[in-house]
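Quarterly update from the structural biology core.
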Amino acid sequence: MKELFKRVKEEFGVEIRNENDMTNAWKLVEMLKEKGWVVYIITARGREQVDAWHPNYGSLYAQFGEIPYFTSVVEGICVTALRVGELEANGTL
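Predicted structure, tokenized:
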């Protein structure tokens, strides 16, 4: 998880302290929202799911044939933000 948080800090300048740091993770959600993404967070016992949808792209994880389950919501937000960043860097978006 430390490597994930390091990547987020390098890419977005947001420091996530641990998998319970929703305050800083929410900054990534706001960043995605500003870029036109809708972020879906579903949490239940044994189920932590984060997905994103964009009107010009569709569902982020459906494009990869993946089901977006994570060990924590914070992890899901971080991975989702990094995926969007990769798509932007590759010119996909």
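Residues 8 and 69 are 19 Å apart (CA to CA).
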